[in-house]
Design goal:
This protein is an alpha+beta fold. The protein contains six helices and 13 strands. Strand 8 and strand 9 form a beta hairpin. The structure holds calcium ion.
Length: 318
Amino acid sequence: MASPSFRFAGNVYRAEAVRDTASVGKSGMTRRALAVVLAGLGGLSLCAARPGSSEASATREDAPPSQSLAHAASRVAAPEPPAPPLDTAVTAPAQASGAQAACPADMLLVEGSYCTEVRHVCKKWLDDEKLSYARCAVYEPRATCVGSRRAMRFCVDRHEYTAPGDELPKNYGSFVTATKICKNLAKRVCTESEWNFACEGEEMRPYPYGWSREPKCNQDQAELYDRSRKKLALKDLRAPASAHPECVSPFGVHDMVGNMDEPVLREAARYDYPFRNALKGGWWMSGRNRCRPSTTAHDDHYQDVQVGVRCCADTPGD
Ligand SMILES: [Ca+2]
């Protein structure tokens, strides 16, 4: 797979590259940085083959290429921390009988037929449609399953994770911290397929709330940066779980797009430490904010102000 192309040089994305570079220095390395180093060593590439739709194959949503790869590459030689164990079969405790009650009170049952690869037709683009992170204003109100279907049944958190006593969802999460938090709650991180299905439903909606981009979620924020500080830094524009009641999926799951970016496990990359994760849904910037796209450029330790946590769990008996 070729590396994504980023010809757009608008203010937002150019500035985002600064954040991306900073994040490499403090919390991990990007797939791009590692690929550069490996290419120099032997022409290798870490750009993992990713099954899925063309949407899912467009890997970068919110993190354009770093413009300081030399700095990033210098960190690659450092020893990697050991791969944290993955919990892949954690069963949620049932509360009562009945379909929805198969999941704890803070989770929702997601059950139905999932399509592995979906095709959407955009009728009106907001950006150059050739860009991998282009936003679509209006889709044809139907989707085509061009992959295979499989039955799914699992529990997913109704909201992004908010720590007890806090008003805002957790930030500075990562795939690694999400794994730990979910495990401590007797849950686990969602797989990308689970996350997709919980977001789009059996209709295979591009947006959790429908077929047209609407201002229902915490997204498309214009003033992203705190310019009062010497070092350019993202503002913390998190919203509480109750702030966008219409930002809801067909299964009733809130804020799947926008607000916090959400780490999930890419099933096909399960053993590809430290690149097992994808970030889903985008956050409060002008990203794609759809169900299928993923950001896969960051390693499992990447954490920043816009990364949160959401957990899944198996239903009892599954
Ligand atoms: Ca979210």
